[in-house]
Amino acid sequence: MPTEIFSFRHASSTIPATIVEEVQRAVPGRPAIMSAPPCRDAILTNLRAACGWSDEVKLSPDAKITITSCKEAIGLCVQTGNMARFYADLMKLSLLHTQERIYAAIFVLPTQDLAVDWGSNIANYERLCNELPIFSPVLHIPILVIGLNKP
Q1: Nearest to 124 by CA among 136, 116, 132
Q2: Per-residue pLDDT tens listing for the chain (151 residues)
Q3: CA 62 to chain centre
Q4: In the chain, what are the domains?
Q5: What is the DSSP string of 51-102?
Q6: Is the CB of residue 83 less than 8 Å from the CB of residue 127?
């Protein structure tokens, strides 16, 4: 499945190519990509079973706040839901980076065309890529954004 890539804070030179390739290979083709839950489930199943990515990572033992996964100190967020949730994911990644639990992150979400097919107000690649530079003064973690294209 073809993907789009955006590198924030030099993430493309910070994150090993092998890790990026694992995530890209985990993206399913038809029919799983045709709706959000099967797509997300397929990505996570592929990454965990074949590549050794973790289960959800808790930010604190006292809360149920998590990111999707982690491997080799690289955080992963797969966002297939509401637009407002990607801001929460950015805060979570930033916190883990500040705590030195991760040094970079990969953020996977649909492109705008695919997001429209999945529903209304779904987080999308174009909006995240346009808004990340606005947060440069407060967001210091390198983030590689992978956009899932419509099949």
Answers
A1: 116
A2: 568 899 999 999 999 999 999 999 999 887 667 789 889 999 999 999 989 999 999 999 998 999 999 999 999 999 999 988 889 999 999 999 999 999 999 999 999 999 999 999 999 999 999 999 999 999 999 999 999 998 7
A3: 24
A4: 3-148 (3.40.91.20)
A5: H---S-EES-TTS--EESEEETTEEEEE--SBTTHHHHHHHHHHHHHHTTS-
A6: yes
